C-alpha cells in the first residue's frame, strides 16, 4: 500500500469524507501480545499462557487484548497518510469502540478507514476517522472505532 502524502493541512482537508486506501496486513505475534500485556499489566492467561489457552480457551490458542487492536490504529493510520508540514500529531480519543471478534495469535489485521470529519482545532485540525480493523479470512472485524487525532503545523 502506498502512503498518501499531503503537502500541508489545507491540502489534506480536501480528503474530508473520503475513504482511505486499505492498509497492509500486520501479523499479531505472541511476542506482541506479551509485550502489550507487560506494558498494560493485563497478563490474563487467555493472552499470555499458551499451554493453558490450548487446554482451556474456547479458541484453543491465545488471543490479543481488545485494546491492542485500538492501540494499533495510530500506526495503521500513520502508514496510510502523511502531512509533510505537520510538526506534531496526537491521539485525541475515541468517540466509539466495539470489539467484534477475538484476534487469535498469528492473525493478520488490516485497517479500512474513512475520514469522517475534519475540523479546525487551535493551530491545527481534529480528524475523526471511522475505522474497521479487519481480520484476514474472518467475516466479522476485530473492532470498529471512531478514532480522533490532532495534527498541528
Question: What key phrases describe this protein's structure?
Answer:
153 residues, alpha+beta, Thiol Ester Dehydrase, Chain A, five-stranded antiparallel beta sheet, two-stranded parallel sheet
What is this entry, summarized?
This protein is an alpha+beta fold. It has 6 helices and 7 strands.
CATH class: Alpha Beta
Residues in helices, as a percent range = 25-40%
Please tell me the overall pLDDT.
97
What is the oligomeric state here? single chain
The tally of structural domains comes to: 1
Shape: elongated
The share of residues in extended strands comes to 35-45%
Rg, Å, rounded = 17 Å
- Report the sheet with the most strands, covering strand number, pairing sense and barrel closure: 5 strands, antiparallel
Distance between the termini: 26 Å
So how many helices? 6
* Number of DSSP strand runs: 7
Specify the structural class: alpha+beta
SSE pattern, N- to C-terminal = EHEHHHHHEEEEE
Which stretches of 5+ consecutive residues score pLDDT under 50?
none
Strand order of the largest sheet: 2-5-6-7-4
And the CATH topology?
Answer: Thiol Ester Dehydrase, Chain A
The named CATH superfamily = Hotdog Thioesterase
CATH architecture title: Roll
Characterise the protein shown here.
With 153 residues, the protein is of the alpha+beta class. It has one domain (4-26, 66-152): Roll (Thiol Ester Dehydrase, Chain A), CATH 3.10.129.10. Helix content is 27%, strand content 37%. It contains 6 helices and 7 strands. The protein has a 5-stranded antiparallel sheet. Strand 5 (108-121) and strand 6 (124-135) form a beta hairpin. The longest helix has 11 residues, at 30-40. The model has no long low-confidence stretch (mean pLDDT 97).
Amino acid at each position: 500500500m502506498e502512503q498518501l502524502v499531503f503537502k500541508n493541512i489545507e491540502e489534506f482537508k480536501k480528503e474530508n469524507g473520503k475513504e482511505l486506501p486499505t492498509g497492509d496486513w500486520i501479523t499479531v505475534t505472541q511476542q506482541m501480545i506479551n509485550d502489550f500485556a507487560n506494558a498494560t499489566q493485563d497478563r490474563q492467561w487467555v493472552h499470555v499462557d499458551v499451554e493453558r489457552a490450548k487446554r482451556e480457551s474456547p479458541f484453543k490458542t491465545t488471543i490479543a487484548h481488545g485494546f491492542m487492536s485500538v492501540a494499533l490504529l495510530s500506526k495503521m493510520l500513520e502508514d496510510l497518510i502523511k502531512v509533510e508540514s505537520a510538526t506534531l500529531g496526537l491521539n485525541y480519543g475515541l468517540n466509539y469502540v466495539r470489539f467484534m471478534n477475538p484476534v487469535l495469535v498469528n492473525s493478520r489485521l488490516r485497517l479500512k478507514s474513512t475520514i469522517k470529519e475534519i475540523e479546525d482545532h487551535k493551530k491545527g485540525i481534529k480528524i475523526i476517522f471511522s475505522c474497521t480493523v479487519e481480520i484476514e479470512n474472518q467475516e466479522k472485524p476485530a473492532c470498529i472505532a471512531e478514532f480522533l487525532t490532532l495534527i498541528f503545523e
